[in-house]
Every structure is written in C-alpha cells, then in structure tokens.
Write a structure and sequence with these properties.
By secondary structure, the chain is of the alpha/beta class. The protein is built from 27 helices and 22 strands. Helix 15 links the parallel strand 12 and strand 13.
Length: about 725
C-alpha cells in the first residue's frame, strides 16, 4: 500500500489503534500523527519527573524498579503486589492486584502510565499500564537517551503512539519522499530551518535536546507562517471589499451626543474619535480594534461612531457579552440621547432614532417587535447579546458593527454579525484586555489597532490587597469593616462569588480564565456561592445594610431591576457572580470583595476590579482566598494586587493559561494548528513569519508557486468553517 500523508491511520495501524487515535486524540491521518508531537522527553535517571507529578494528573513516567513485594490480601482472595519505582529523586508506589508480570523485578526499567492517586499521603498508581524495557523488541529505542512521552489517552498509551510513529518514520520507500515540504526553499535558507522530514524525524526520535530544539523551531515556523498567511489573506480580502461611506453630518445625533455628554472627552478619546470618523467616511470598510484599559471610556467612543453612522442613514449594532451589559448600554445610550433616542414614541423627537435591545430572553412578542424595528430600519442603534447573531435577525442597512469586550467572542461571531450587512459594514471591536504584541499579531492580526492610554482624569485609583483567610482570619473581619465604612460614607460595594448556589451541583458561573486545579487538589470544597454568602453577610458582618443578589439564573427583568436599584444607589451591597465582570458601570461603587479569588483568572480579576473607582472616589479591591500566600496561586493573586498595569497582567495571564485559550474559542487547539508556538516566547519568530507572509502575498502570483503552503492555509480555513457550521 502506498502511504501518503493523507492516508487514514486505520489503514496503516489497523482499525483498533486507528479508531482509538481518531476518537480520543483527534488524529485521523498520517500527517495528523506526525504532527502529534511529544509533550516532553524522559531521560533515564532524570531527576525531576516523579517529584513533579501531582495527584489527579494522568502521566507517563520512565522509572526503574526498586523493590517488589507481594502478599495475600486480607479480606479477599488474591494477592496484592506493591512495586516501588524511582527515577533518581522521586519515588512512587505502584499497586497491582493478582499481578503476574515475571519481568517486573528490581532494576528493570519501564514506562508506567496512569492517573496519579494518593494512599495514606503517598502518591501511587493503581494497576498502571506499563511497558517494561526488557531489552527485547525495540531495544535500540529504549537505549536512546531521550524517550518521547506523548500526549496520550485512555486507550492509546504513549508507547503505542511511539511505536506507531516509528512505523511511519520507517515507512518503506523512504520517509523523506513521503513528506513534502510546504516551506519554500528560500524561506528555509533565509531562516536556517531544517527540511520538514528532518524536523519530524528529530522531534520524534531525537538524540539530544538540541535536536528537539532545532526541530521544534522549524515546526513552529509552519504554524506561525500558516497563521500569518491566513491573516494576511484576510487583510488583503478586506482591503478589496467595498462598503458604504458613512460621512459625518452636522446637526444630527452625533452633535446631540456631544452636547449631552456630562464630561469633556479625554485627548485619547478625541484622537481615536477622529480616526474613526475619518475611516467611517471611506467606502472601504473599517476593521479596527480599540483597546483601552478598564474604565478608559471606550463606550462613548463607540457611541459617537454609531451616532455618525445613524446620521448617515445607516444602522449600528453593538454586540455585548452579557445581558446585564447589553441592558446597561441601552440604558446609558437612551439616557444620553433623551427624546432623540425615542423616535416614534409620544415624547420622541421625529428627527431622532430608536435604541433597541435584542437579547435571547426577551418575551416572544417583544422579540418580534424588536426584530421588526431592526428589519424596517426604525432602530438606528441596536444593542444585543448573541441573540443578535441569530438567523431571523435582519437589518435594513447595517453600517457599523461594534463588538464590546471582544475577548468574549470569536472571529466567527464578529463575522456572523458582519454578514448581516447588505454591503460589508464597518467593524469596531473593543477590548479592555491589553494585548501583548504577539497576540496582536496573531489573534487580532487582521485588525488595525487604536489604543486609549489615559483614564479620564479625576479618577481615584484602586488599591488592591490579598486577604489570605487561612493565615490571617482577622483580615476578613477587617475587610467587612472597611466595606461598612465605605457604605457609611455613601459609597457602594460588590461582593463577587464564583458560584450561584442553591441547586445541587451547579457549575461555577463562567469562571473562564481560572487555571483548573492547578494545585492538583481534587478534594477542594465547592466554590463559595452567591446565595450562601449573601445570607451569611446579611445575618453577620453586613447586617443592616441594604444588600441584594445578582446572578445568571435570574430572569432579565429581575436582573435589570437589581441593576437599576444598584445604579440608583438604593442597594448598597451587591452580591453577584461574574455577571458583573465586564463593563458594568456604577461610578459610586468603591469596594470590590472577590471571594475565592483563586477561582478566577488574572484577566477576570482585573476586569472585576475595574468595576470600582470609576468615579472620583478611590477604590478598594480585596481578593479573599484560602490559598497560602507562598503557593503559586497565592503568588498569582499577589501579582494581580501589586499592579494595575494591564499589559503586565496580560503577560501574567498568558503565562498561566494555555496558548489555545488565549487564541480564543474561535481559533483554539486543533483548528488553529497551534501546538508548539508560544505567544509568549516566540515573538521574534512570529514577527519574522508575519513579514514573510506579507512578502509572499504581495506578489501577483500569491501562493500559486507554493501549493504546499496554499494547501495548509486552505486546510486551516476549511477546518474553521467546518467547526463554525457545526456550532451554528
Ligand atoms: P470601558 O472603557 O471600561 O468600557 P466605560 O466606557 O464604561 O469604560 O467608561 C467608564 C466610565 O467613565 C463611565 O462611567 C463613563 O461615563 C466615564 N467616562 C468616559 N469618558 C469620560 C471622560 N472623558 N471623562 C470622565 N468620565 C468619563
Ligand atoms: Mg466597557
């Protein structure tokens, strides 16, 4: 059989292994398996592995048998064998019932895989999978210094993968001919890159770590270049699109907004505003990312752009990640526009427009009415959640799409909304998560970037502290006292918890950035819940204060009512889930207490903290945690408390999250083809790949002379589309 990179694995490896790989690891073809790189390399006698494994981890270790003892079981028939293995520093116990492995004797080397358990404080594997290195079959492999350890699954162990890869690498007719190198020779030469076949050989069967390094560098290039070509192609396609110019018209909504603003725009807001105004006035659609620190005043910049588009006869849509935020935007915009935002109503101004809210939980009749307003063009400004993206939602003339808190959405959602324009609309996406350069070059590589650097003046600033309740229980009492003092001074407070409560087994409400179980503790108590905490506070430290709760299980009317009461100052303390994470804007709130702060990601905490000190008063953010100060979690929280520099935190966030998460739901994992590339460490490589991608596409022939690259780009694109279709 002629094996090609596209041959299904089942044909090469047999149906059982093939199915296991496809179903559990998502590997379907020969190329998929060759691109399934080792997670790490074990060395015999290496000092670290066993000492590092955590209870609950599924791991493969290479270790030597130290002792074997077998004894009959006390209460049952059969025997129990305990095997102690070690790798130089650490030791671990393996437990087998009725075991009959004659070769499992002291001094034997083996690979052992399983889920690390714990028994009487000692780490152990209960009946692990194992492969003893008995010097028989693939002797030469085991004699190597470096043994690749692959990401494995329940039925497909690391050594099955290793054997399968070996089979492919040794495939008859020469592996070199099987693998066609998509990278053009000149690019390889310019950057000193290995040919693909050599790189694959080295990453799977290295002799030294230098081999791994060089091979990895080359393989990262594949990833970076494909991604950059895709983005460059998007930019080129965008540049060729023609949309509709939406010029500024004096005497309209925009002037009314400017007149109604209760503050002067910051210099940054004015500058970005002019940039946007000029771009909206062109018929080539704008594709712009507005990044600005939490509280820097992005909303008003977006609103002014929307007003310009409405003045020019188009509609503007604002997509928000939560209903609370969508409702707040509508309230704020309506308040600012006054009668001009109520065209068609009794007290409305006939020259104005309508501000329409469209969310998933509107009642059927209200939804129908909202959709009609949008479709007939009566609604100039449409604010909504994911419901905006649905089929059935049609615009009369969509001129501008604004995506608020872009990090909550994927490229697909942006595109889905864009597709609702008769002609390609202008696009403005906004994020408060500052973007490291590499992320800007990758995730947002098809957008121009504007930045709001300054906060509106007169802000009090937020001071943050960690409250380690286990070490310093008294600090928590002090925290509630501080909260009471602020409330006594007329301010308001948030208390945020990771969970809603009440229902058995309810899931954390969207604690998306938190690194799961990073301490390997699987026995943690459930996260604190809004309902429980609210009750305890009412009965205890915050007794007598006007306290209310807000969470995702409430109806939109309930949520809206609670937010209104809080915004109006009637409620003093709001105990909430992360529904208040993004965008919520109540300038009188000055205290943010985050319970179980360790359950949240860095960016989330930064966002939460952004809810306070939005007015002239100084803010206080308290991160309450049971994590010890010295633990990695404790240190992560201390880092959040010690800086409000969003860029620094974004970097920290990158470090604590997986690359796939950073690339966002839309571009994560398999589809983005990102396995080796690190946004944190490969900045230079990404910049070089970007330059090569631009150069490649700037010639008339584009990728015509590079069919291999074209195929990789096409594969990435079609994967993306396929996935989107599935979701839609
Ligand atoms: P973000 O950029 O986080 O979305 P917002 O747009 O919600 O921030 O603005 C935060 C707060 O600052 C709001 O209350 C807003 O009204 C206020 N604000 C915006 N621009 C200014 C300004 N130039 N001067 C004073 N306050 C401003
Ligand atoms: Mg905002």
């Amino acid at each position: 059989m002629a094996v090609t990179l596209g041959t299904p694995l089942a044909k090469v490896l047999g149906p059982k292994t093939g199915t296991g790989m496809a179903e559990q690891l998502g590997l379907h073809t020969v190329l998929d398996l060759l691109r399934h790189y080792p997670r790490r390399y074990a060395r015999r006698g290496e000092q670290t592995d066993l000492a590092d494994v955590q209870v609950g981890d599924r791991v493969t270790v290479l270790a030597q048998v130290r002792s074997v003892t077998t004894r009959p079981m006390r209460n049952r028939r059969g025997s129990l064998t305990e095997v102690v293995v070690g790798d130089g520093s650490g030791r671990m116990k393996l437990v087998f019932f009725n075991h009959r492995h004659a070769q499992l004797k002291p001094n034997a080397w083996g690979m052992f895989a399983g889920t690390v358990g714990e028994y009487r404080g000692e780490k152990q594997f209960a009946h692990p999978d194992m492969h003893l290195l008995d010097g028989a079959d693939d002797d030469t492999d085991w004699a190597r210094a470096l043994v690749p350890i692959y990401p494995a699954s329940k039925d497909v162990s690391s050594w099955v993968i290793q054997k399968s890869v070996k089979l492919l690498l040794g495939a008859g007719g020469g592996f070199g001919e099987l693998v066609e190198d998509p990278l053009p020779e000149e690019i390889r030469a310019r950057h000193g890159l290995l040919p693909l076949a050599a790189a694959l050989l080295d990453i799977h069967r290295p002799t030294t770590m230098e081999d791994v390094e060089r091979a990895g560098h080359r393989l990262k290039w594949d990833e970076a270049l494909t991604l950059q070509l895709t983005l460059a192609a998007r930019r080129r396609a965008a540049a060729l699109e023609s949309g509709v110019a939406r010029p500024r018209r004096p005497g309209g909504l925009l002037d009314a907004v400017d007149a109604a603003l209760p503050f002067a725009l910051t210099e940054g807001q004015r500058e970005v505003g002019e940039e946007l105004a000029a771009e909206l006035d062109r018929d080539q659609p704008m594709h712009r990312l507005l990044q600005g620190e939490v509280g820097s005043g992005k909303t008003v910049v977006a609103l002014r752009a929307m007003a310009q588009v409405v003045d020019a006869g188009g509609q503007a849509a604002l997509l928000a990640p939560t209903e609370v935020l969508a409702a707040q935007h509508v309230r704020g915009i309506r308040a600012l526009l006054g009668p001009l935002g109520r065209a068609g109503e009794l007290d409305g101004d006939a020259d104005g427009t309508r501000v329409t809210l469209l969310t998933g939980s509107l009642k059927a009749a209200a939804k129908r009415e909202a959709r009609a307003e949008v479709a007939e063009g009566r609604a100039g400004i449409v604010v909504g959640t994911h419901a905006l993206l649905q089929e059935g939602v049609e615009f009369a003339d969509l001129g501008l799409v604004v995506v608020d808190e872009q990090h909550r959405f994927g490229v697909e959602q942006r595109d889905a909304l864009r597709a609702k324009g008769n002609r390609p609309p202008h696009v403005l996406v906004m994020t408060a998560t500052p973007i490291p350069r590499t992320v800007a070059m990758t995730v947002y590589g098809d957008l121009e970037v504007s930045t709001l650097r300054q906060l509106p003046s007169g802000r009090g600033g937020v001071s943050s502290s960690v409250v380690p309740v286990v070490e310093k229980p008294a600090w928590l009492d002090r925290a509630w006292e501080r909260l009471r003092e602020e409330v006594a001074a007329g301010r308001q407070a948030y208390v945020v918890c990771p969970r809603i409560g009440d229902l058995p087994g309810d899931e954390p409400e969207d604690a998306d950035g938190a690194p799961p179980e990073e301490d390997g503790r699987s026995d943690r108590r459930p996260p604190l819940a809004v309902l429980d905490v609210a009750e305890a506070l009412r009965a205890g430290p915050l007794a007598g204060l006007r306290l209310d709760v807000l969470h995702g299980r409430m109806t939109p009317e309930e949520k809206d009512g609670v937010m209104r009461a809080f915004a109006a100052g009637e409620t003093q303390v709001l105990v909430a889930t992360t529904v208040v994470e993004v965008g919520v804007d109540v300038p009188n709130a000055t205290v943010m207490v985050v319970m179980d702060a360790d359950r949240f990601g860095v960016s989330q905490l930064h966002q939460l903290r952004g809810r306070v000190a939005r007015g002239k008063h100084a803010g206080l953010c308290l991160l309450v945690t049971e994590a010890p100060s010295a633990s990695p979690t404790g240190q992560r929280l201390a880092a959040v408390a010690s800086t409000s520099d969003g860029f620094e935190l974004a970097r920290l966030d990158l470090e604590t999250r997986r690359e796939g998460d950073v690339l966002g739901a839309a571009q994560s994992g398999r589809r983005s083809g990102i396995k080796l590339l690190s946004l944190l460490e490969d900045e230079e490589l990404i910049a070089e790949a970007r330059a090569e991608a631009i150069a490649l596409l700037s010639t008339d022939r584009g990728l015509a002379d590079h069919p291999g690259l074209a195929a990789e780009v096409a594969a990435l694109a079609s994967d993306e589309r396929a996935e989107w279709l599935e979701k839609a």
